[in-house]
């Protein structure tokens, strides 16, 4: 009874104490009898010591949150209350009389509205990012497909071209052909031009050199094309300004227009001579020379004087306006003036206008006189029946640009010449006395390229004619891009682009990753940009593997272009070519026995905005990035980047040092190369970071150790590993080797398990060899020596086991078990 009374007294005191603590900490009061406590205890035991209904993760979460002061039950209640509004729908309105509830409702609605708006914005933003990424990937892949087919985007999408010209199969197959005879002629000109540039001489006209070279082809049409390019590229440019600003300036545009006009006039003059000499009997040229008599004879062969509607009389039996027109068509203003004066007073006003044009520097009337001629044209000349008279007024004063003059402009060149005579540079309408809109160059370019286009000129049947139309209207980029789509003329296109690039007439995009032809929003329509880098790389792709020197000559034109990361494009191209072909010795040279680098092809370009050292280093970086580590070692060695050479060799040796070299020629070559580099570095005393050199030389020593181990030379291998002082072979060395292990490079640590296992194997083999000798055959001293050796070997094995257990490195489980087994075999 006393014991029960004392227990009851203690229970009451404990209850009071708990009540006091609970009141202070606000703990919940739990009232349970003994039976309930026993049942709860049994349930906890059955559940593995966990409260019923709770998993281990829930228990851990409750403990963690409770330690941070989070009230888990109250938090659960809040979450349950929020779940009622998880659909984020607006709450039902509250009667306005209940102000407190109304404000609470409005506040909750405002929060829900913000949450919903944020959710929608996040979804839209995420959706936009996803689609932009997909579109960007598609554009890149699409451009790769187009590049692999060897053509531009329009060559695939343009369905107006004949099937023979649009053959994608032909474009694909041509990408794998070698240089033809025609391409070799162009390549030699490019090489000669680059030689002059590299030597620092005065650069010749590349267009002129191409024009001279193509005469050997015997193609008169091609000769005319290059003569046109040569004349058009002689436009004087301000070198300090960009090509875009220069091409948009009034002086340059006027110069381009005059050059195009001169080309068409010279061609027509040659045409008249051929026609007259072909029909000498009817031409009646006689002994007279000059454009006037040539035109008069030409008109005699055409019997123009018998045509109705010709006005203002005849000169020497031919209609005067026809003579004036054809003299102008041949570019001889003096002959036209002579014919006008011979007509007498009827053409006196026109003669005065011609005299003014001849006296001016730009062969133009003054703005006021031009306006007066236009007024006269609108009043009287427009309704004249003589088409030659109307054409002459339109030519000298740019009257009525919408008139096609189809009666006399029977060819594309005639039409083009008349329109070019009427052209005015962009912006000139703001400078003259008249404020009327003029027939500007950009307007005519848009008319030719966008309104008429390839279908109107039947471009794929006569590609050179459409090319000339674009080129003579100063649309060089569109002209080159069009020719590049046709396999037959792609060679011409690339070299025209190079010639224009050297005269700074070619407009390039802002990024070398742009499509072959592109528009820039800030450029005035219909201006285009031509991606010369893409065009050159598409052209050289078919022969860069077989004609490396020729490919480099074309890459040389890209030396002043840069990739988005600022790398010289010539460096990028030659790097990709070197890594793809792996012709490193031919391109970069090689290391001779004396340690010097013999020159390669690339050394030809040293000093012309190109650093051979930087190019070699960039090639090494690409080789390393692409996983060609052995090549990267050799190339970094050429670049004299000893730290990178040692760094990559360490990486390679660490991965293969424990493998038997005799089974893999690649490992043999790697180790031989590493030894050669080590010898060269020692003899040349070239500085290498100490942490790299120590790791490198230690790996070479480990390679020697494993070589001895795999060849079965037990004693030499044990002597080598003892000299390396890498692992302990007696008890006194254990602590020092463990301390030294912490300072080893990761490449060395990674091979420690193999080193320990190989050493244990050597010890076990030596142990078994000594133990296999029968005791009766040994003298007493020899048996004592053998027992001492066996004891020392067992001690060394225990040192290795102790060492592996003390170093801060997780040994592979299979190696650990094998070490223990071998150590047990020595007992």
Automatic annotation (TrEMBL):
GO cellular component annotations of the record: nuclear pore
One GO BP annotation of this record: protein import into nucleus
Is this entry keyworded Repeat? Answer: no
Q: Which UniProt keywords apply?
A: Membrane, mRNA transport, Nuclear pore complex, Nucleus, Protein transport, Translocation, Transport
Superkingdom of the organism of origin: Eukaryota
MF (Gene Ontology) = structural constituent of nuclear pore
Q: Where in the cell is it found?
A: Nucleus, Nuclear pore complex
Q: Give the chief site where it resides.
A: nucleus
- Write out the similarity annotation: Belongs to the nucleoporin interacting component (NIC) family.
**Record protein name field:** Nuclear pore protein
């Amino acid at each position: 009874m006393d014991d029960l009374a004392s227990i009851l007294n203690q229970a009451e005191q404990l209850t009071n104490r708990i009540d006091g603590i609970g009141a202070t900490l606000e703990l919940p009061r739990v009232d349970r009898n003994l039976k309930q406590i026993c049942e709860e205890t049994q349930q906890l035991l059955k559940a593995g010591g966990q409260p019923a209904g709770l998993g281990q993760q829930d228990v851990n979460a409750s403990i963690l949150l409770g330690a941070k002061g989070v009230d888990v039950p109250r938090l659960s209640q809040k979450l349950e209350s929020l779940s009622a509004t998880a659909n984020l729908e607006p709450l039902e309105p509250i009667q306005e009389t209940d102000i407190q509830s109304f404000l609470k409702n409005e506040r909750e609605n405002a929060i829900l509205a913000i949450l919903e708006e944020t959710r929608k914005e996040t979804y839209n933003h995420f959706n936009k990012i996803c689609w932009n990424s997909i579109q960007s990937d598609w554009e890149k892949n699409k451009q790769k497909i187009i590049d692999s087919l060897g053509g531009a985007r329009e060559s695939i999408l343009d369905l107006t071209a004949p099937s023979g010209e649009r053959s994608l199969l032909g474009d694909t197959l041509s990408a794998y052909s070698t240089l033809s005879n025609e391409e070799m002629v162009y390549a030699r000109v490019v090489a000669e031009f680059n030689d002059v540039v590299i030597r620092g001489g005065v650069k010749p006209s590349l267009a002129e050199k191409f024009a001279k070279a193509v005469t050997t082809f015997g193609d008169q049409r091609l000769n005319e094309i290059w003569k046109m390019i040569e004349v058009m590229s002689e436009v004087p440019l301000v070198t300090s300004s960009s090509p875009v600003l220069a091409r948009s300036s009034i002086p340059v545009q006027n110069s381009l227009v005059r050059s195009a006009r001169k080309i068409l006039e010279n061609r027509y003059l040659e045409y008249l001579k051929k026609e007259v000499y072909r029909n000498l009997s009817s031409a009646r040229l006689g002994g007279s020379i000059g454009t006037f008599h040539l035109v008069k004879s030409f008109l005699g062969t055409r019997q123009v004087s018998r045509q109705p509607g010709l006005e203002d009389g005849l000169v020497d039996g031919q209609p005067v306006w026809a003579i004036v027109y054809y003299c102008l068509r041949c570019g001889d203003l003096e002959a036209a003036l002579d014919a006008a004066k011979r007509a007498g007073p009827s053409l006196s006003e026109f003669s005065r206008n011609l005299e003014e044009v001849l006296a001016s520097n730009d062969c133009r009337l003054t703005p006021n006189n031009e306006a007066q001629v236009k007024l006269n044209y609108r009043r009287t000349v427009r309704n004249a029946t003589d088409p030659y008279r109307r054409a002459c007024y339109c030519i000298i004063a740019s009257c009525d640009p919408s008139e096609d003059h189809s009666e006399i402009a029977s060819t594309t060149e005639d039409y083009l010449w008349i329109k070019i005579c009427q052209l005015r540079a962009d912006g000139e309408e703001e400078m003259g006395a008249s404020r009327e809109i003029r027939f500007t160059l950009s307007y005519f370019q848009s008319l030719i390229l966008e309104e008429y286009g390839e279908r109107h000129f039947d471009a794929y049947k006569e590609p050179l004619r459409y090319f000339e139309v674009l080129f003579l209207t100063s649309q060089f980029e569109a002209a080159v891009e069009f020719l590049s789509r046709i396999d037959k003329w792609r060679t011409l296109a690339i070299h025209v682009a190079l010639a224009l690039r050297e005269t700074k007439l070619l407009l390039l995009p802002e990024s070398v990753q742009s499509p072959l032809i592109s528009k820039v929003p800030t450029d005035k329509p219909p201006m285009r940009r031509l991606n010369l880098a893409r065009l050159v790389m598409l052209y050289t792709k078919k022969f860069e593997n077989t004609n490396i020197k020729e490919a480099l000559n074309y890459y040389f034109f890209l030396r002043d272009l840069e990739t988005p990361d600022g790398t010289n494009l010539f460096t990028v191209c030659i790097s990709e070519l070197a890594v793809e072909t792996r012709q490193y010795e031919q391109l970069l040279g090689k290391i001779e026995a004396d340690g010097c680098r013999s020159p390669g092809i690339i050394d030809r370009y040293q000093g012309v905005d190109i650093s051979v050292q930087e190019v070699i280093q960039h090639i090494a970086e690409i080789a390393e990035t692409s996983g060609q580590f052995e090549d990267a070692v050799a190339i970094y060695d050429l670049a004299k980047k000893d730290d990178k050479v040692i760094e990559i060799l360490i990486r390679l040796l660490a991965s293969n040092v424990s493998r038997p070299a005799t089974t893999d020629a690649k490992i043999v070559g790697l180790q031989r190369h590493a030894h050669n580099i080590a010898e060269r570095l020692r003899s040349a005393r070239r500085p290498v970071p100490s942490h790299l050199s120590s790791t490198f030389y230690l790996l070479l020593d480990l390679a020697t150790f494993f070589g001895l181990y795999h060849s079965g030379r037990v004693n030499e291998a044990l002597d080598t590993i003892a000299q390396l002082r890498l692992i302990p072979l007696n008890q006194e060395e254990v602590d020092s080797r463990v301390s030294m292990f912490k300072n080893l490079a990761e490449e060395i640590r990674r091979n420690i398990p193999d080193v320990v296992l190989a050493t244990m194997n050597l010890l076990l083999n030596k142990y078994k060899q000594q133990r296999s000798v029968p005791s009766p055959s040994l003298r007493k001293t020899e048996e004592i020596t053998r027992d001492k050796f066996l004891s020392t070997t067992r001690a060394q094995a225990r040192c290795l086991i102790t060492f592996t257990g003390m170093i801060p490195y997780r040994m592979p489980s299979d190696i650990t078990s094998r070490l223990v087994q071998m150590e047990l075999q020595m007992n």
